[in-house]
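Hi L.,

You mentioned the student needs an example of a multi-chain input paired with its predicted structure. This one should do, with 1624 residues in total across all chains.
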Amino acid sequence: MASLKKVVLAYSGGLDTSVIAKWLQETYQCEVVTFTADIGQGEEVEPARAKAQAMGIKEIYIEDLREEFVRDYVFPMFRANTIYEGEYLLGTSIARPLIAKRLVEIANETGADAISHGATGKGNDQVRFELGAYALKPGIKVIAPWREWDLNSREKLMAYCEEHNIPVDFAKQKTKSPYSMDANLLHISYEGGILEDPWAEAEEGMWRWSVSPEAAPDTPTYVTLTYEKGDVVAIDGKAMTPATVLEHLNKVGGANGIGRLDIVENRYVGMKSRGCYETPGGTILLKAHRAIESLTLDREVAHLKDALMPRYAEMIYNGYWWSPERQMLQKAIDDSQTVVNGDVRVKLYKGNVSIAGRRSEDSLFDDKIATFEDDAGAYNQKDAEGFIKLNALRMRIAAGKGRKLS
Amino acid sequence: MASLKKVVLAYSGGLDTSVIAKWLQETYQCEVVTFTADIGQGEEVEPARAKAQAMGIKEIYIEDLREEFVRDYVFPMFRANTIYEGEYLLGTSIARPLIAKRLVEIANETGADAISHGATGKGNDQVRFELGAYALKPGIKVIAPWREWDLNSREKLMAYCEEHNIPVDFAKQKTKSPYSMDANLLHISYEGGILEDPWAEAEEGMWRWSVSPEAAPDTPTYVTLTYEKGDVVAIDGKAMTPATVLEHLNKVGGANGIGRLDIVENRYVGMKSRGCYETPGGTILLKAHRAIESLTLDREVAHLKDALMPRYAEMIYNGYWWSPERQMLQKAIDDSQTVVNGDVRVKLYKGNVSIAGRRSEDSLFDDKIATFEDDAGAYNQKDAEGFIKLNALRMRIAAGKGRKLS
Amino acid sequence: MASLKKVVLAYSGGLDTSVIAKWLQETYQCEVVTFTADIGQGEEVEPARAKAQAMGIKEIYIEDLREEFVRDYVFPMFRANTIYEGEYLLGTSIARPLIAKRLVEIANETGADAISHGATGKGNDQVRFELGAYALKPGIKVIAPWREWDLNSREKLMAYCEEHNIPVDFAKQKTKSPYSMDANLLHISYEGGILEDPWAEAEEGMWRWSVSPEAAPDTPTYVTLTYEKGDVVAIDGKAMTPATVLEHLNKVGGANGIGRLDIVENRYVGMKSRGCYETPGGTILLKAHRAIESLTLDREVAHLKDALMPRYAEMIYNGYWWSPERQMLQKAIDDSQTVVNGDVRVKLYKGNVSIAGRRSEDSLFDDKIATFEDDAGAYNQKDAEGFIKLNALRMRIAAGKGRKLS
Amino acid sequence: MASLKKVVLAYSGGLDTSVIAKWLQETYQCEVVTFTADIGQGEEVEPARAKAQAMGIKEIYIEDLREEFVRDYVFPMFRANTIYEGEYLLGTSIARPLIAKRLVEIANETGADAISHGATGKGNDQVRFELGAYALKPGIKVIAPWREWDLNSREKLMAYCEEHNIPVDFAKQKTKSPYSMDANLLHISYEGGILEDPWAEAEEGMWRWSVSPEAAPDTPTYVTLTYEKGDVVAIDGKAMTPATVLEHLNKVGGANGIGRLDIVENRYVGMKSRGCYETPGGTILLKAHRAIESLTLDREVAHLKDALMPRYAEMIYNGYWWSPERQMLQKAIDDSQTVVNGDVRVKLYKGNVSIAGRRSEDSLFDDKIATFEDDAGAYNQKDAEGFIKLNALRMRIAAGKGRKLS
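Structure written out for the whole complex:
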């Protein structure tokens, strides 16, 4: 077992990470530094202070990272129209690099030689935390208690709490969700419980951030998003910070039943898992970003972005945000966004996001050329013949030599 | 001007292609063969016979190609989860190769040396028809009247009709949609009119195949699709042919407000254009196919398919269905589908398609490994440490040598 | 420590795997089955029998797999013009899947529950052996002694031999190469020793399969390769089996100083390593295969293959030959090769392979079109204008709207 | 026929473009501006002045663009290890964008409304010139005489000269190469003549820039290249400008028989053509750049570059240097090169370029980890087990459920 001096723990203030804090103190005889961040998970972070203090922890970091999270992680990711496996908006994945970065920075500030987190040994999050930490501070030690200890059942955990005087809110434990959940400003996720049967439909009672489409208002809501360099900077004409944009869209999206997703996904560690996600604001952002790009991006740039996107999504899903290859791709993606400016008007209605209009000073849409009416010579239809003939040439030669298509 | 003996015309029976038939006879002094196909556009094809006969046409082909269309074109395309530019389900694009193939086959049967079509010189369809024709019969001549004649306004067209005794249904002309439309079993499309302003929302009255989400039933409809090798073979337990599957899904999808799309797309000929599409059945198929694949496909196969898809979609959109590169990709895609078997239960509600469940004898989902509960040793969490450490190694080395990530 | 019944060992007959055989017997108290294959490494395999018998091993497999190796592994790989990191012809990588497959088959035949190999914990080969074994027989146990034991120096190994009466040919040990080497019909590799300094030039004395370009004959050798479906089936008009083709090309290539390579490569386990390789026949095959493809493949098929190749090479290098994604890609690659037939004439001279000619019944080269002389109308130069105009359209529109290229 | 005011002609000073100059004056009754650039083609450019003056041309541009050519076009391209169709170093392709840019700039300076060039209607160069011109100045007119006039034989051209008093150097015409050639600092190319038979070996007498490997010195030459940010900045310790670097490498490469290539390539206009190329310096640059990257680039960055390269090469070959997609990719490529610093020692010998050593302050090669000797714990071999186990997990699950690999 590694000898540790001081460890920075990603601490939620909840029961599991409280047990971890105690277990680290006891197992490694080391100092523990707690780090609790508000990334929009919707729970108070301040109460974590008292809990940490109660365990004798002296260095306690509690931070509001919402703006940084959306500005430096969520928005750059949406510039690429990023989706994993055709469906997943990467709500959990994108929050991890920021946590990893802060853990390392706090380790540097406090002279800690290790970090620790509460992710299990079966999931993607351990990978994301640890790849990030190793990439930013190669000599760091990582303690992943769920991979080490034997407290692998609720009963053993409770026994540990009793033994170590960790206060348990039994009322809360009883009403605890049967699902494993994770939330931040971009989404809330659900795993486990009946979801472990992919044929079982998710219960209505599970969802927390959105009303069902059935329960959403009977009249649509229209919202206008203003883009600058690929990011939303204003809603309905009102300038907003990145986090405020996402909070606003979550609210209006959730109220209109938008952003529920139920998928089976492939984890980086090699297994399939069922997950349900609510991403109201992100769902709107993806649709709207494609709309403003459709007007402003060159065709080949757009296609190149589409071709690169699955690889970029894999990088983020698998935990390689902090990698030179992600940064290299980001350079190309960001370069494409300088012209992605303008307005998108979206209609939100009972689960649907549809585009009601898009306009831009940087529009490449040319109605004089596109028109079905007389275009006054803007486009010479005769050019099409040569275009087709030469594009067909290789196939005409092949067919002329008897080559068959089957 | 090329000298022609006989030309096979893709003939809808409508006014434009009637003018073309006459114009071909007159301009080229050649025989015209008409070819009219039912590919599910929702209009009777038999009336085309009398109209052709009235113009003195002797060789008249009228065919029901709906099954062939869905079985050999639509279904293979959906095996790849094909979408163009992130949104478009390629409803128009995928119908063209079948028409091109039949035009060439009929030219071979009738001894014709040319084909003709009614697509304009600004669009993608001319490219799709002609690339297909050249690839299948390299010596064929192609007559594209819209690129040649000077009948480039409604007025001139009408004058031509009057002059040449082509009967015009003036009542129909008056109530004519202001949109340029195209329909087949997969979709109906709208272009032109007010859509030429990308900021203008499409009018409710434009849409023909679906009710609006607002007007759809207040209770959801559940449908179970059964897949074999990536294709739907039964709905709600009832075996169906490919065309029947799509017809059924169009009906139930359209009734639930599903499949409307409003986009600005990039044409192969180089301009942006605004299009609206209704693809009720296709929208359900795409979502359901991803769901059955999520359970049955290996992760890397799925990711490889996602990486190849944009290129495959471009091939179809640009008119390269009849090309060796499309066929090469299809081999890989089809190979992946042998295991894509099972059931998907979808919920349709006011424009939303959501997945209520998926199950398969070929499922790779392993609940014993994925579970949050005790997995009885099926998965060794300790393996994750080595997995992460070696995946991080290149970045640890780089960081250790002072390489910075920015 | 796992309890084992019987283990199949990839046994070279050399000292290291002899120690492993003994160590397995002693450590796991299990039966050992040895498997020794001739894959063209250039050493007798039969002597392994007596050595194994001397250790009391009863089930001894000695096999000549040269034809299978070239036919089912080397040739399919060369159909894709496969190179890793722009240089490496994957000589070691491609031999591992065959060994893994036979280890698993022998485990099935002999009722063994484990396999073992002599690859170290730092290299790629452990990964290739084990991924293959797990993919083909998921419940198999794998014993990798170099990752388990503490015999991690030459001294300890020798002490173990003495202690366990493993005969050591001290004469041979003394003249032992300072390099770690691996050979099969495709190549021989060198690592370690002075090569661990990337600035140090490899010594002439290291190379075993080829003369130096300086020492090669002063007159060139011409060889004509005949291809069928992408594979060489005859040399200079004489039909040959796959292994004979490669043996012949190794001989003539080596004699002409062809196929030496000195690179720094990136291992799958995360580190860079320096390797030197001699691949005389493979170097000729790659050049010649590109030449016959240049004449017979459609342009877009060729470009698609080039785009897929780096991913395919990664699969093989990283050990995923036995994976559904490699098989899926192979389907597309093999589909492209049906037309890759004809002759290539290569000139070999002092390290150079150059193409002296290529011809094919399936050639798509059309001299009537390609000619600089009068082509009698086979190609209409005027088509080029439309081709260029429409390909430029998107950029003309952008520039017309003031969009700048920097 | 378009009405022209003034046209800028890419003027070599040779017979063909002299005819074009006259033909433009006569056919369009317009002023002609000549533009003659030294891009290292190895011929004097100054004599073009007198020839242009003799035709009454008043605005004559003669420029030495060698440094700009190598610095802004050749070097950026080599940062991507760019090769078209596995072989071609793009020597012709990369010179065209610079010419197109200068033609447009001169049109802007002189108030010309058109440009003209001497490329034929069958080749790639017309496309490259014109796409570049349209992208940089969308309203420009392009006159491509070879697509317009009827002077399509040597005889007609000569008759035109006689008729228009264009002086013909008959001595030179007689000894004219039977090949169509193009040269710049990166390469010289040959097409036509006996090369139109792909089975015919190129004659020794054709090659102009390099001695044959047979005729090259019997002792090798060693050269050390120093890289900064992916570009060579010094040779054998002597700082050099970009053009000087390439000139020097051409000289030493050519003297050692390096850089001859004989291929059949696929033109963008749809036909296959046979070309021979001499690229002595470029051949050295490609090999050396890969070597310095092998030491300094992260693995995934290198692989991503390899995956993107074929697309990037297509862009350049097809004439899309001046496009937003090429610029987007360049951003990613250039970003990767900040660490590509150090020295590469190459050995040149009778046609061979081999790497004798590479070293860098930015090396990621870690001999403490890579070593076959005891690494003192720098790498934990046990990590490999978990790495392999989890990478195998998806395949173990599949095989465990009976999924077969064939």
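You could point out the following to them. Chain B is about 40% helix and 20% strand. The longest helix of chain B spans residues 299-318.

Best wishes,
N.
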